[in-house]
Design brief:
Distance between the termini: 54 Å
Oligomer: single chain
Order of helices and strands: EHHEHHEEEHEHEHHHEHEHEHEEEEHE
Strand content: 15-25%
Helix content: 25-40%
Number of strands: 15
Number of helices: 13
CATH topology of the largest domain: TIM Barrel
CATH superfamily of the largest domain: Aldolase class I
Radius of gyration: 21 Å
Shape: globular
């Protein structure tokens, strides 16, 4: 195929890593994968290169203390059949792919790649379509994994065409980091663009949710790939986790927002890094992250500040909306139990908190008898 590239899954191509025994221990536990294209964007002479932080293994991933889980958002609880999650009434997520163009070091689904990976990929496409057909409340389908654009174009066409036959599904979202890791997958595959043209219609759009973490990922090739998707009729939005050493600087995050908006890519979500095993070196505490996020938004115009700072928790998608001197305020952007959607949770601040559970544990362990430390709910 014209869009094939070289995938690198061994550090022997990177002498500074190949000679490091600790790095080899990391790779044995958490695999490494990268495209030749992306590797060429990295300044290997700079130990603090932000693109290196995104994809190259680091010794800190072997930190000794216990931190995180393989399934930090408890996706298993919402899995109704292999590869199909139904957490929110109107939305299902299909783990359509078990492949990525590169493996992000902070991946929250690394359970799919460690120890041979977990058998979670969707295999029964027709069964999934029957499930969606039988639930008329479902209006949105997310194709994820893995990376949806790493699927062969022919299978992606079959998948999307079958979903388009479901009358109540108005939106199909394709989650992907291909434009950042592997833009030639899009640049050199006219069949993919024709697929987008066919199934992204004025009344039922395809959304491509891209994943750019740092302004340097927005190369001319990456921007052209996104432009072609938009010209084909897709709506393109970006989401990124807040990652230590990558975009935890307000100036860098603001520049990412600017470059995205200049290219017509809407900043969508900035996610709190999920507490997955091995992710501790990449995570930023929630309250520090909120201040970085809000400072960055204050540096850009309205069109560039559309992103929300959110946490994909087991209980739902929580937006971090405010800090006072003593409290932090969350809002259920979407709750797994829909009656909680829109409700506000208020906790006493904890600068060491990386996840909602850190506030809950503080409540239950130390301040159970004090009302001010209990979460307060408002509709």
């Amino acid at each position: 195929m014209a869009h094939r590239t070289t995938f690198i899954s061994s550090t022997r191509h990177i002498p500074s890593l190949a000679e490091n025994e600790r790095i080899q221990e990391v790779v044995a536990k958490y695999p490494f994968k990268c495209t030749e294209y992306y590797l060429n964007l990295i300044d290997l002479t700079d130990p603090n290169d932000p693109l290196a932080r995104i994809v190259l293994p680091h010794e800190d991933e072997l930190q000794e203390w216990e931190w995180g889980r393989l399934d930090p958002s408890n996706e298993k609880a919402y899995t109704v059949m292999p590869g199909l999650q139904h957490k929110y009434d109107s939305t299902v997520l299909l783990l359509a792919s078990s492949n990525c163009a590169g493996l992000c070091r902070y991946c929250f689904r690394k359970r799919l790649f460690v120890d041979g990976g977990q058998p979670e990929r969707l295999e029964d496409l027709d069964g999934a379509v029957r499930y969606i057909m039988g639930h008329p409340e479902i209006t949105n389908v997310i194709l994820s994994g893995g990376d949806s654009l790493m699927l062969p174009t022919g299978y992606l066409r079959e998948l999307i065409s079958k979903l388009r036959r479901v009358p109540h599904v108005g939106i199909i979202r394709l989650g992907t980091k291909v434009p950042a890791y592997y833009p030639h997958r899009i640049l050199n595959d006219p069949d993919l663009l024709n697929l987008i043209k066919t199934y992204s219609t004025p009344t039922r759009r395809l959304y491509v949710i891209v994943h750019f973490d740092h302004p340097r990922e927005l190369t001319p090739e990456a921007i052209k790939a996104c432009s072609l998707l938009m010209e084909a009729g897709a709506l393109v939005l970006n989401q990124t986790p807040l990652i230590r050493g990558v975009n935890d600087d307000p100036q860098v995050l603001a520049e990412l927002f600017r470059k995205l908006s200049f290219a017509g890519i809407a900043p969508y979500y900035v996610f709190q890094c999920r507490p997955t095993v091995g992710n501790r070196p990449y995570a930023v505490p929630i309250e520090e992250g909120y201040q970085i996020f809000e400072t960055a938004r204050g540096l850009v115009s309205g069109l560039a500040k559309r992103a929300r700072f959110t946490m994909s928790h087991e209980k739902g998608k929580l937006e971090i909306v405010a800090l006072t001197e003593e409290q932090i305020i969350f809002k259920f952007h979407r709750a797994a139990d829909n009656k909680n959607t829109g409700k506000i949770l208020i906790y006493r601040r904890n600068p060491d908190a990386y996840w909602l559970d850190d506030y809950v544990e503080m409540v239950s362990s130390h301040y159970l008898e004090s009302e001010i430390f209990r979460p307060t709910y408002f509709v």
